[in-house]
Amino acid sequence: MTDQRDTTDRFLPRFDAAGLVTAIVVEADSHKLLMVAHMNAEAIEQTRATGQAHFWSRSRAALWRKGETSGNGLTLIEMRVDCDQDALLLRVKPAGPACHTGRRSCFYRRVESDDSLTFLADDAQG
Questions:
Q1: Which domain holds residue 73?
Q2: pLDDT above 80 for 123
Q3: What is the CATH number of the domain that holds 74?
Q4: How many structural domains compose the chain?
Q5: Are 36 and 28 in contact, with CB atoms under 8 Å apart?
Q6: Cα separation of 31 and 122, whole Å?
Q7: What Rg, from alpha-carbon coordinates, does the chain have?
Q8: Count of CB atoms within 10 A of residue 9's CB?
């Protein structure tokens, strides 16, 4: 049986047991993967209302706006939802590095077959 979320033209996020959906964040122009975070209903609401990406911090159990301390905010260009509405894709314009380490993307290391990590040059700290 197909869930209504698969075919509806209404935004009906499917939150997990903790009240969250996964948010994949990419740079709108380059399509570069910047980060993965979580959003609750309030984070989605604030993101849509302000045009600035908001997320739910599982470790702090608090709502936060990306860039509130660093100034490296993420301006929302477009929000998409997957087929069963349990994941979001945020296309954004970043105002600086997306990663708290100062790198453009949180995905700046490649896992090698020997379990070592290779730091990627295109995501060097700036």
A1: 4-95
A2: no
A3: 3.10.20.810
A4: 1
A5: no
A6: 14
A7: 16
A8: 4
- Note whether residue 91 is domain-resident: yes
- Check: CB of residue 36 under 8 Å from CB of residue 24: yes
- 109 residue type, one letter: R
Residue 125 is predicted with a pLDDT of: 60
Residue 123 lies in a domain: no
- In angstroms, rounded to a whole number, what is the distance separating the alpha carbons of residues 65 and 75? 11
Q: Does a structural domain hold residue 32?
A: yes
* Residue written as token pair 């301390």: 69
Residue 51 lies in a domain: yes
User: CA-to-CA distance for 104 and 6, rounded, in angstroms?
Assistant: 34
Q: Which residues, at least 6 apart from 95, have a Cβ–Cβ distance to it below 8 Å?
A: 67, 71, 72, 73, 74, 75
The overall pTM is greater than 0.70: yes
Helices within 51-100 (DSSP H only): none
Which range (3-12, 43-52, 74-83) has the least confidence? 3-12
